[in-house]
């Protein structure tokens, strides 16, 4: 395991060294190298927040869509206190697909 960590650290140092060299050379790194790293945060909504949006989808249907994997979500916690967080983008994508 330690050997694997050393290899990863060496690879990371190599990549960072290459990035620094590109920046010092004056190449435009903002669009080519850094673009895949920078991502927009995903807006996640609880089920009550989705219901408040007035999407026309019932809570029961939304829970079925989550269970079927048709709408991306993550589960936080366990048991009665556990909540589903639904990706707003995934929900919109699903609704747009169903509407057409």
Task: Describe the overall structure.
This protein is of the alpha+beta class and 100 residues long. It is built from five helices and three strands; from the N terminus they run ααβααββα. A three-stranded antiparallel beta sheet has the order 1-3-2. The mean pLDDT is 81.
Helices and strands in order:
Layout: H1 2-24, H2 29-32, E1 44-46, H3 47-53, H4 59-68, E2 73-76, E3 83-87, H5 88-99
Antiparallel strand pairs: 1-3, 2-3
Query: How large a portion of the residues is in β-strands, by DSSP E?
Result: 5-15%
* Major beta sheet summary: 3 strands, antiparallel
Structural class: alpha+beta
Mean pLDDT: 81
Helix content: 55-70%
**Can you list the strand order of the major beta sheet?**
1-3-2
Poorly predicted residue ranges: none
What is the count of DSSP helices, taking H or I runs of 4+ residues? 5
State the total count of DSSP E strands: 3
Distance between the termini: 51 Å
The Rg value, from CA coordinates, equals 21 Å
**Molecular shape:** elongated
Order of helices and strands: HHEHHEEH
Throw out a few tags for this protein:
100 residues, alpha+beta, 3-stranded antiparallel sheet, 5 helices, 3 strands, 56% helix, elongated
Q: Short summary of the structure?
A:
The chain has 100 residues and is of the alpha+beta class. It has helices at residues 2-24, 29-32, 47-53, 59-68, 88-99; strands spanning 44-46, 73-76, 83-87.
């Amino acid at each position: 395991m330690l050997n694997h960590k050393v290899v990863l650290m060496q690879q990371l140092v190599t990549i960072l060294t290459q990035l620094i060299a590109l920046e010092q050379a004056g190449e435009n790194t903002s669009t080519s190298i850094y673009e895949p790293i920078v991502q927009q945060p995903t807006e996640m909504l609880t089920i009550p927040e989705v219901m408040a949006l007035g999407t026309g989808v019932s809570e029961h249907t939304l829970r079925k869509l989550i269970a079927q994997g048709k709408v991306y979500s993550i589960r936080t916690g366990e048991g009665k206190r556990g909540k589903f967080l639904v990706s707003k983008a995934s929900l919109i994508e699903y609704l747009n697909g169903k509407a057409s």
